[in-house]
Amino acid sequence: MILKNFNFFVFFVFYNTINRIKFNLLTKIMNKVKNLLKKIIPKYFLDVYRNLNNYKSAKKFIFENNISSLIKKDIKEKYNHNSELLDIFCNNDGFLVHKWHHYIPIYEKYFSRFKGKKLDF
Q1: How high is the pLDDT of residue 23?
Q2: DSSP H helical ranges for the chain
Q3: pTM for this predicted structure
């Protein structure tokens, strides 16, 4: 009985080790491919691709008209919140930001004490 359990244990350890090695190898290969593609494909096309994909996945959540003013109005009415962070969030012209509206007041509450301070990570 002990030998049977020991054999199972050895098999289990060996099997998990092999899977970990395969996973690590695949991760390394994927990272090398991504880094190679980043060097080959110009940044402009990567930005366009990322924005297109972000837009498609979030299309059902986007306001139809003047987006920034509607989002700002929605957050002000629902959460009685108005801050500099809200202005930054609503006037973003860069990548599409995926945030539920109730996060903006929460971020302001917990991170406002760091405003204007130097942070070390």
Answers
A1: 78
A2: 2-40, 43-58, 67-79, 84-90, 103-111
A3: 0.42
